[in-house]
């Protein structure tokens, strides 16, 4: 089988070492001799054309032009299910998501090619500084955590796969509008004003055009914590070029397009329900039926940059994630029960002393 294996090792023209993409700059640079090579930039018109989204139904029916499909060789982590670009020269790599050592080769896979990429803006040193600041602000974290941060522990620079959906929605709804009114109950001394709600039926239509609605196309990171890395500045999106990947790893999508669209629908639904409540008006709203029609469904497959550290603490794995574009930090953290117990004890001692002083003051 022909393997269109992606090769990101750009040899340096001067010394032959591997060039790496320099975060925040439109160039590759050589760590050894300092040689720099600019990444060719497109003019705005070409850029806009290249960044055009693809038709969702064509993709689901497997009718995308062959130019949008690539065959890649992937590594699979048996522990957490992550799939990464296979690196032929790296033998014993650790899974960047869960720090487990076993990663197996899945062979070739047909995939939708990424259309666009948000190149790294933060360097590894920048990301480490953000992580250290975040750790410093943590209460009741085990001291080993701070030690880990100081000693680290390189961060992994990873591109995470996303689906970005453009969808037009029209929704018919029915529900009820609640209006408050007040009645006086009881009489004389016992008279009280009470709030009541009068309900009347309401129905109508709302419309919304969603643009670049993001859904992570992998399950290796918790969806909630990756969502807290938002917002991403989509204006910096570049047409996909392997140049931006040199020196970094890319995760392949494991949530396919239809499943991604289902998740997008849930996100759209949250927004649509908020629109409906606003449309119903009044003081309170009840929604009894929502009927949404989706059209002009289009999508882009994107790669977004994160810096990450995974570490194991007492048999569990934890992660720090830093938005490689904005520097926003998200982390899972162990709690130090020892420190919490000490703090509770200190609090009790403080209280006891406060009482004691109050007692003395009373005399
Ligand atoms: Zn060089
Ligand atoms: Zn893993």
- The geometry reads as flat
The N- to C-terminal Cα distance equals: 93 Å
Helix content: 10-25%
Sheet-strand content, in percent, reads: 35-45%
How does the major sheet shape up? 9 strands, mixed
Number of separate strands: 16
Structural class by helix and strand composition:
alpha+beta
Tell me the Rg in angstroms: 27 Å
The distinct ligands, each listed once, are: zinc ion
Mean residue pLDDT: 85
Number of helices: 7
- The unreliable regions are 1-8
Q: List the secondary-structure elements in sequence, H or E.
A: EEEEHEHEEEEHHEEHEEHEEEH
Q: Can you give a write-up of this model?
A:
With 363 residues, the chain is of the alpha+beta class. The chain has 7 helices and 16 strands. The strands form 3 sheets. Strands 5, 9, 10, 11, 12, 13, 14, 15 and 16 form a 9-stranded mixed sheet that branches. Strands 1-2-3-4 form a 4-stranded antiparallel sheet, with no helix packed on it. Strands 7-6-8 form a 3-stranded antiparallel sheet, with no helix packed on it. Strand 1 (10-11) and strand 2 form a beta hairpin. Helix 3 (124-136) packs antiparallel against helix 4. The radius of gyration is 27 Å and the shape is flat. The model is unreliable at 1-8 (pLDDT under 50). Bound molecules: zinc ion (2 copies). The site of one zinc ion (ZN) has 8 residues, from loops.
């Amino acid at each position: 089988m022909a393997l269109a294996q992606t090769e990101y090792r750009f040899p340096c023209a001067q010394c032959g070492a591997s060039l790496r993409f320099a975060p925040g700059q439109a160039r590759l640079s050589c760590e050894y001799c300092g040689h720099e090579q600019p990444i060719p930039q497109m003019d705005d018109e070409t850029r806009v054309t290249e960044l055009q989204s693809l038709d969702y139904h064509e993709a689901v029916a497997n009718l995308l032009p062959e130019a949008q499909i690539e065959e890649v060789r992937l590594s699979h982590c048996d522990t957490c299910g992550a799939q990464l670009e296979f690196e032929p020269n790296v033998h014993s790599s650790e899974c960047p998501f869960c720090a487990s050592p076993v990663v197996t080769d899945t062979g070739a896979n047909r995939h939708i090619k990424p259309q666009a990429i948000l190149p790294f803006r933060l360097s590894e040193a920048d990301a480490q500084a953000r992580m250290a600041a975040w750790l410093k602000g943590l209460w009741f974290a085990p001291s080993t955590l701070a030690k880990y941060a100081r000693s680290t522990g390189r961060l992994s620079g990873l591109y995470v796969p996303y689906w970005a959906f453009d969808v037009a929605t029209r929704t018919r709804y029915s529900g009820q509008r609640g209006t408050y009114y007040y009645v006086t109950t009881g009489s004389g001394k016992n008279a009280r004003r009470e709030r009541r709600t009068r309900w009347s039926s309401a129905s109508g239509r709302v419309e919304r055009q969603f643009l670049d609605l993001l859904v992570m196309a992998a399950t290796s990171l918790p969806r909630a914590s990756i969502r807290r890395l938002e917002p991403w500045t989509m204006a910096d999106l570049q047409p996909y070029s392997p140049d931006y990947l040199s020196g970094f790893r890319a995760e392949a999508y494991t949530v396919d397009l239809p499943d991604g669209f289902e998740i997008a629908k849930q996100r759209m639904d949250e927004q649509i329900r908020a629109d409906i409540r606003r449309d119903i008006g009044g003081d309170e709203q009840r929604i009894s039926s929502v009927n949404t029609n989706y059209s002009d469904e289009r999508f882009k497959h994107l790669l977004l940059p994160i810096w990450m550290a995974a570490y194991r603490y007492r048999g569990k794995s934890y992660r720090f994630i830093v938005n490689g574009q904005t520097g926003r930090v998200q982390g899972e953290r162990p709690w130090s029960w020892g420190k919490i117990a000490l703090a509770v004890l200190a609090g009790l001692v403080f209280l006891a002393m406060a009482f004691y002083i109050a007692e003395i003051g009373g005399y």
